[in-house]
Amino acid sequence: MTRQIKLGAFLPGGGQHVAAWRHPDQPADGATSFEFHKQLALTAERGLFDAYFLADGLAVPAKGGTEGGRAKIAGFEPVTLFSALAPLTKNIGFIATASTTYEEPYNTARKFASLDLISQGRAGWNVVTTATEAAAVNFNLDQQHPHDYRYERAQEHVEVVKKLWDSFEDDTFIRDKASGQFIDPDKVHTADHVGKHFKVKGPLNVPRSQQGHPVIVQAGQSDNGRELAAATAEVIFTSHQHISTAQEFYRDIKNRARALGRRPEHILVMPGVAPFVGRTEEEAQEKYRALTSLIVEEDGLALLNGLTGGTLNFADYDLDGPLPPLPATEGMKSRQALIRQIADEHQFTIRELYQWIATARGHFTIVGTAEQVADTLQEWFENEAADGFNILPPYLPGALNDFIDLVIPELQQRGLFRTAYEGTTLRENLGLPYPENRYSILRNSKVA
Amino acid sequence: MTRQIKLGAFLPGGGQHVAAWRHPDQPADGATSFEFHKQLALTAERGLFDAYFLADGLAVPAKGGTEGGRAKIAGFEPVTLFSALAPLTKNIGFIATASTTYEEPYNTARKFASLDLISQGRAGWNVVTTATEAAAVNFNLDQQHPHDYRYERAQEHVEVVKKLWDSFEDDTFIRDKASGQFIDPDKVHTADHVGKHFKVKGPLNVPRSQQGHPVIVQAGQSDNGRELAAATAEVIFTSHQHISTAQEFYRDIKNRARALGRRPEHILVMPGVAPFVGRTEEEAQEKYRALTSLIVEEDGLALLNGLTGGTLNFADYDLDGPLPPLPATEGMKSRQALIRQIADEHQFTIRELYQWIATARGHFTIVGTAEQVADTLQEWFENEAADGFNILPPYLPGALNDFIDLVIPELQQRGLFRTAYEGTTLRENLGLPYPENRYSILRNSKVA
């Protein structure tokens, strides 16, 4: 089959753009409305998206948010939300973010396995290390662990979770009422993990789903982040302003995966794209300008503060002057570097910078017609910059509907996107292989 | 309004009785079938139950299970499962069990607040300390913490969670698109908790629901357990073989609550009842005998082992002889004492004992006609032994349908049970007060 573009939909109920909640199209209470999230899921499924994707933070940011905007000060916990949306949908996947730093592997493994079972194989776990001081102080710490420590713990956390997901081989359950034999005990396995950060015996008390186990997703851009992704991720969410840096990232990740013995097509690179789509270029520009005009300065600065490390007080600076040097951070190192790059490249003032990143926090923003957007996606897709994209509609549901009604048909016409779901599980739709149970592999290799 | 019986439904997909999965009526894969849990929720709602209740354990028990039976070796995590069931139902509440020992308060507060928001105010949290060695070794421990330590941590955990649930006053969200004012920052509160076990700043990033916050449920029977329940519980799940001990417990709990300044009617005592209901007494007896005949010895002994502390190997004893002395346990102390009491009172052999507790792990079992069951419930309800009951149908869906079709109409005829839901939230149906936000109370007291 011809290779086609994979699409994730990044749909926070509060909207993507910092000022989205003020847009006439967006319900102001979207972030805390279950009905609105249900509408978004059904809409994304109508658009044949592979997955509904949600970020997550374990705090209300004090001085500024990495997600940005007070419309996102409160909302749902992603795994419970997606569990509720799963039975209301049929094909779309659900990729929820959860932290390796502030959860225990047994609990992480369990909630995602449960979501995977409820959704009949449509779950994904976006692995994050949670890089904010605001979260650290909600979990018994005075300040967050260093970057390296978090990634080391993340690596071990993912390893334990994956082991736990294999606790039951696929043919464990016999359930013979006549004989009374419910399981084959030889097919149940303990993890017996003893490591630096965790000691976990197992087995997990949730079985595997139709897709084996949830899809592993990651977004780390630093060297640590890339190493973790190459080793364990099946989908990578990434952030680039230019095809050149996206290509560098794409090739690097595929090479790292190859070096670790993985097949490069089993790790999908999906840059974020925030599209303002119009029937004409002017209409698209007008949509962009309308949202920009709604930004509350305080929100824009809070977002900028969150994304640059959280230590600068922009009230002390001239907003129409340049971005000052940024102090080193133990938070999101690569995001900080990306913001710096954008500021320097465009020679933005502080005000222009927060207006620009207000759309999608540094993700690639396209303002144009459906043809122009499709051209860009096609160029990236066909030139080793992307296997697919995470679409971040700036306001909801309007910008999502625009993408579905205008861009999707254009991509379909070019043969670049599906016209029907390939399967019912997230793996089937993403074209990812079914992960054989590690203990079944061992058993079979012994027999052979 | 006249006081009426409150009813919870204890409906594990794998069935209550150790051998339930072998019953012709019960789907053998019920524990891992989402469709079956959906059917159970809809059935319980048809019966006008206040809540669907699920126990939880953070392990696959090694030598024996406190829930019992290999049919329960794997299943769903309760909060994700209930989130999925919430949008498919309208009135029934969802009481999920979660551990204060193996979770962090910020995560606990968050997932229950999210379930409460998704269900529009129908969530309850059954607070447990998780008393098994099998769970301890899944969370970095070599053996579980002592009983007292677990209860001390539980008390603090609940305190932090309740504080976090009040992070946003009910009128925090202004959401004025014109002015750009999304919140009133004076109505957002940090918890600033610094205690022996936890340090949690807050605020929580989930707002309060239609019922304020989830209903707090507990089941501890020991002195520690009763103290914790009297201080924080709104519903108490309890286990008694006789009206006399139920009355002692009922009065003790209400007195403890009164002593702590609480109104005794704001803490509902609900003993567990496992009913085998027949159109005749003989039919009911036959249902009981049929299930007993399906018990696999190994499962019966595993359950007995789990409930008596997990340290005896019953293979070393004559199963037709008496229960040996039980070694002291740091696990479920009061459950162990209850099993001892049952064994001594009935002069049960080991075999007879596991056959008896196979139904409902020591909960009160009634075998009889609808009139007989209703008589017993009425007697307990009208004589300070119970405000309601947690019904544990031994097999599913049959025994649940029997209760709904035979016993509920009998209770309704006597004016003892509702004929329609009183409200849409769990609190409204249970007759529990709306918990005012602590910070709003403070503010109002300053104004007055």
Which labels suit this protein?
homodimer; 448 residues; alpha/beta; TIM Barrel; eight-stranded parallel beta barrel; two-stranded antiparallel ribbon; globular
Mean pLDDT of chain A, nearest integer?
93
Quaternary structure state of the chains depicted: homodimer
Just name the CATH architecture of chain A: Alpha-Beta Barrel
Provide the helix percentage of chain A. Answer: 25-40%
User: Major β-sheet of chain A, in short?
Assistant: 8 strands, parallel, barrel
Order of helices and strands of chain A: EHEHEHEHHEEEEEHEHEHHHHEHEHHH
The geometry of chain A reads as globular
SS class of chain A? alpha/beta
Q: CATH H level of chain A: which superfamily?
A: Luciferase-like domain
| Gyration radius of chain A, in Å | 22 Å
What's the count of strands of chain A?
A: 13
- Note the gap between the termini of chain A: 32 Å
Name the largest protein-protein interface in this structure: A-B, 70 and 69 residues
Strand fraction of chain A: 5-15%
Task: Trace the largest sheet of chain A across and list its strands.
Answer: 1-2-3-4-9-10-11-13
Residue stretches of chain A low in confidence (pLDDT < 50, at least 5 long) are none
Helical segment tally of chain A? 15
Number of domains of chain A: 1
CATH topology call of chain A: TIM Barrel
CATH class designation of chain A? Alpha Beta
